Amino acid sequence: MKFLKILLGTVVFIAVAGFAIYFFGTKLIADQVMDQVAVELNDSGQLESIKQEIKNDPQLQAFIEEGKNVDSSTLPFQTKEEAVRVLVKKFSVSELKELQTKAQSGLTAEEQQRLFNEIEGKLTDEELLALKVLAYKELKQR
Predict the structure, then answer these.
(1) 119 Cβ partners below 8 Å, 6+ apart?
(2) The pLDDT of residue 50 is above 60
(3) Which of 14, 38, 100, 132 lies in disulfide reach of 67, CB 3.0 to 4.6 Å?
(4) 131 Cβ partners below 8 Å, 6+ apart?
(5) 74-110 per-position pLDDT tens digit
(6) CA–CA separation, 61 vs 107, rounded Å?
(7) CA 37 to centroid of chain Cα atoms
(8) Can you tell me the distance from the alpha carbon of 82 to that of 84, in angstroms, rounded to the nearest whole number?
(9) Confidence check: pLDDT of 34 > 70
(10) Residue 85: partners with Cβ closer than 8 Å, 6 or more residues away
């Protein structure tokens, strides 16, 4: 009987510890990725070039404008940090870095379409709409 109590206690402890590591680990990773991307974009001046590229590309502009009149309270996430957590769960860190590298190096229309297809394949329609809302807010904020 005592062995069973110890075994059950150990299993419960491991389950709680695993959940805590998963929850706080993804939060920590999301915060680190968000900080790194924000610093890189601000320091390199790429944020302004990204905004210019969006303004010059009607397809990208239309894509982001879809998030203009959406009630964000019904979406799976409302903040950049929550979005990063979802992206870290859906994409590996190496996939996110690869997407970032592709976007930074400049993309042809065909490469942009492949990138959009890859992202759309891993995200639900609601998650994609939430990203559009965040992108719209971010672009209009600055």
Answers:
(1) 99, 128
(2) yes
(3) 132
(4) 67, 83, 123
(5) 888 888 778 877 887 888 777 877 777 776 666 677 8
(6) 16
(7) 11
(8) 5
(9) no
(10) 26, 27, 30, 77
**CA pair distance 40, 32, nearest whole angstrom:** 12
Instruction: Determine the Cα–Cα distance for residues 30 and 96; give it in Å rounded to an integer.
Output: 12
**Encoded amino acid at 103, one letter:** A
Say what the pTM is: 0.60
Q: Which of 14-18, 49-53, 113-117, 132-136 has the lowest mean pLDDT?
A: 49-53
What count of other Cβ atoms lies within 10 Å of the Cβ of residue 68? 11
Q: Which amino acid does the sequence have at 41?
A: L
pLDDT of residue 11: 87
In degrees, rounded to 5, the angle at the alpha carbon of residue 83 between the alpha carbons of residues 78 and 88 is: 160
